[in-house]
Amino acid sequence: MGAGRVKHLRNRRVWQTVLAAMLIPLALIAFWPTPIDRPVQGLLADTLSFLHRQGIPGWFNYQFVEATANVMLFVPVGFVSAHSFIEKRWWQIGALGLLVSGCIELGQVIFLHDRFASPTDIVTNMSGTVVGALLSAVADKRLEAHHRTAANLQ
């Protein structure tokens, strides 16, 4: 990877722009008037039932799928936030995820009568943000080591 590309990857303004752009689909998902999985609920139930008949354990249920989806939704938020606010530590990025998730859940309680605010959602969303921030730190270390090795070869 060329030095110009590495420099571009470290440009916090680029990451902040990406973060701002990510908030649009996140807001659409969070504030959709009905549960976002409603159109596929039957298919999801059928799939889980099939998997259980094939020997997948009972704990792999709708709640597990929903919690995993919440974590995965916020992993990119944590990754991009860590690059956007490079002076912050992973736990501060996690606190940002907690704040964003708390605002989402509060908004659902106040404005969306068909949606269900949940403390579990807050915890899983924050967890995803923390995972993303930690993955960012690992990626940065690996990129830095790779860049150092490449520079030593020149």
Short description:
The protein has 154 residues and is an all-alpha fold.
Write the layout of secondary structure elements.
Blueprint: H1 3-9, H2 12-30, H3 41-53, H4 62-84, H5 90-111, H6 119-153
Helix pairs in contact: 2-4, 4-5, 4-6, 5-6
Describe the structure.
It is a single chain. The chain is globular and about 60 Å long. α4 (62-84) packs across α5 (90-111) and α5 runs antiparallel to α6 (119-153). The protein has one domain (3-153). The mean pLDDT is 90. 22% of the residues are buried. With 154 residues, it is mainly alpha-helical. It has helices at residues 3-9, 12-30, 41-53, 62-84, 90-111, 119-153.
Descriptive keywords:
globular, mainly alpha, 154 residues
**What does the overall shape look like?**
globular
Task: List the uncertain runs.
Answer: none
**Rg from alpha-carbon coordinates:** 19 Å
The biggest beta sheet reads: none
What series of H and E elements makes up the topology?
Answer: HHHHHH
